[in-house]
Amino acid sequence: MIETVPTRISHPTPKLDQNIMLFVRLLRAIGLKLGSASMLEAIDAAKTVGVADKDFLYHALVSCLIKRREDKPLFDQAFYLFWQNPKFHERIRDLILPRIKAAGHQQEDVEPMLRRLSDALADPPDDPPNTAEDVEIDFDTEGTAADTDRLQHKDVEPMLRRLSDALADPPDDPPNTAEDVEIDFDTEGTAADTDRLQHKDFEMMSAAEIRHAEQAIANLQPKLPRRSARRSKLSSRGQLIAMRAALQHAERQGGMVIPKFRSVITKPRPLVILCDISGSMEHYSRIMLHFIHALTRNHPQVSSFLFGTRLTNISRQMRHRDVDEAVQSVSHLVDDWSGGTRISASLETFNHRWSRRVMGQGAITLLITDGLDRNPDDALGIHMERLHKSTATLLWLNPLLRFDGFAPKSHSVRTMIQHVDHFLPIHSLQAMTDLTASLAKMQTQRDAKLAEWQAAARRASLAADLVPAYAQESAYAQEKGHTA
Amino acid sequence: MSAFDTVEAVQQELGSAGYIASDGLAVSLFLALAKQRALFLEGEAGVGKTEIAKMLAHVLDRDLIRLQCYEGLDINQAAYEWNYARQLVDIQAQRQSATNEKPDADNLFREDFLIERPLLRALRANPRGAPILLIDEIDRADEAFEAYLLELLSDWQISIPELGTIAAATPPIVIITSNRTREIHDALKRRCFYHWVDYPSREVEREILALKAPEAGAVLQAQVVDFVQTLRGQQLFKSPGVAETIDWAQALVELNCVALDPQTVDSTMGVLLKYQDDISRIQGSEAARILSEVQAALVQGELSRA
To answer: pLDDT grade, residue A372 (50/70/90)?
Structure first.
């Protein structure tokens, strides 16, 4: 990374302060969260290290201005553009500092990179950014799979887009996101109606009913699982002796030592949600986003991911207070809505890139999927097993479980069911309410049924392993015959 | 006050002590020392985060005070604790010597009843100069502990409610490491210089191996490094770190191995990979394939050099 950032500092040192200031503002414009303390620090650091060696200046700025690894690729590109090219530098200065000359900047660009960039900056983008807030949300995709992917491909376009978006004038019209969402409070919400709605499958709901359901979800009061932390607090009914408090009391009371107690406190377990948004889950994905949002709002530590053909981290988007804006920013971010399913590959990505970062401290995982993988591969079992072993409890929430006659038939479902702790429906409001109530207890009536299915699935996979060798050989011969 | 005059000096000193620091790390370290701020090192396990603190202590000839974080770590274990036994004895003594009915229990919380734990010890004056305070694997401690560190890291002091504030004689050199099993709060990171410790490049790793496992010949070193570098590109659940590379090279030396061969690779795979899934994936044909690639590439390199 270091070698790929050639630097040529063509500005004299007295201007260094100002240049770093500009650079920090540029970084802020592309979404890095930097306070003025960081800026002063960067100036100080640059002076300490000196500007004689460009690599050292680069590293000095990195260690002051980067607080997250994910910001690094963005920083590198910005650094390259800013310090490498005096023309770009001037252009940025024109744009960021109060603009005096409005027009008349003729560019005789030599490098195509610069031309592309200045084009992006000169012309208003095709679709102007809606609001300043909108832009901010877009920038905030820290560490999402999409973000990192793009950056890893060294694609400069998104960076330029961000820059041009950030630097373009904010449009005059106020945010219109709230208008898009109409919530009609008409008379439908009678008691009988609500009851019917409770048990109705989300798939069968009309648009209006969905809106009601969404409201109901927002009002859910999830009881989330907690675990005992290794900390304690003063409590008269505690089990541990609190020596310090007792002696403090003794000092005040002139030497009378009366025992005080502490009790162990509990803290919420981190929650990880993996939600399928493929074609077969189409009718559920929007409502699930509302569900995830409700959980995120009620819990300090929720990491949520969507997967269809690839995995996207939406934890940050879901932390937006307003559910509609949260959902909207997710829909911008994710581009595999209602496509195929690659459960195995998505789980692999999750295990590889995220599980160690979000599964700590006894996390509970909700896996929301129907388990229907279009092209299942043999590795699904391995990745499910890894997922199961990384988490304290793995709950599979499957909308297909609404059917009374449900039985795990497909190969992928049979593989996955062997590695889950609980298997629950998630097709109606009632199911959702039951789930949020039982999350804390972690015991459900369906567990007996699950054990039965798991045993059956294990037998089936064992039987598959014991298929006589000649059968495999003949299958192989058949396959070969096809290809030949 | 800085221990080093230039970034190059940092690299040189550490290098002579047996630690190859990349440019980025050396600059961060130099700044942390010059600006008296903590250095926050994040990276995968086994890339030498803890080692840097040890080496620094060695190079600067200072004390190393290590605080290993774990869940539930609290003030009593991290900063200070009152010596309750002595306090109780003191109450007894006062009671016996007191002539009046009501014993006097003043000054139960005196400085000589204070038991120093790593954080407080790091603030005390030290004849060898300000010590190196290594706060290791902070991601294992819970959030409450991070918040407790804020006062220490910004003002170099610890407040003890019964006693007052204890400020550092000279600020210690603080190195915080994290394996990123959870995100550390921005407020803490803001008080530090941040550096992501990456896996070393091929060249750097060879240098490291030449230093750490000199008994392995140049051929074995080159093969080991190339093999490990290829493994890191394999989407494993846990890629081998530098520590594993060194372990492996040393293990191969113990086995009197001069060059890698498929059998040895297979039988020593457990030194490199620590997950059964990863081992079963690589062991056997995949390992043989990587090995033959590595060997071919090395021969190619030899030829082009010749």
So the answer is: confident
CB A89 within 8 A of CB A54: no
Distance of alpha carbon A469 from the chain centroid: 46
Residue of B nearest to A35 (CA): B190
C-beta atoms of B31 and A38 within 8 A:
no
**Residue labelled with tokens 């920090």:** A24
Question: What percentage of chain A has pLDDT greater than the value 70?
Answer: 69
Residue A290 has pLDDT above 50, yes or no: yes
> In this complex, which of B31, B105, B182 lies closest to A357 when CB atoms are compared?
B182
The b-or-e profile of A296-309 (16+ CB within 10 A means b, else e) is bbbeebbbbbbbbe
CB contact under 8 A, B194 and A67: yes
Q: What are phi and psi of A402, to 5 degrees?
A: -65, -30
- Cα–Cα dist A56/B98, whole Å: 68
Q: Do B31 and A267 touch (CB under 8 A)?
A: no
Chains A–B, number of C-beta pairs less than 8 Å apart? 120
DSSP state of A187: T
What pLDDT, on a 0 to 100 scale, did the predictor assign at position A445?
Answer: 65
Distance CA A54, CA B49 (A): 25
Reported ipTM exceeds the 0.85 cut: no
Task: List B192's β-bridge partners, or say none.
Answer: B38
Tell me the whole-structure pTM to 2 decimals.
0.72
* Closest residue to B181, CB basis, from A41, A67, A360: A360
Nearest to A229 among B42, B108, B142 (CB): B142
Res. B106 pLDDT band, cuts 50 70 90: low
Mean pLDDT lowest among A38-47, A125-134, A253-262, B184-193:
A125-134
CB contact under 8 A, B35 and A361: no
* Tokens found for residue B38: 């903590």
Q: Which residue has better confidence, A223 or A140?
A: A223
A contacts of B95 (beta carbons < 8 Å): 255
Q: Which chain B residues contact residue A66 at CB under 8 A? A: 194, 196
At a CB cut-off of 8 Å and minimum separation 6, what does A64 contact? Answer: A38, A41, A42, A45, B31, B193
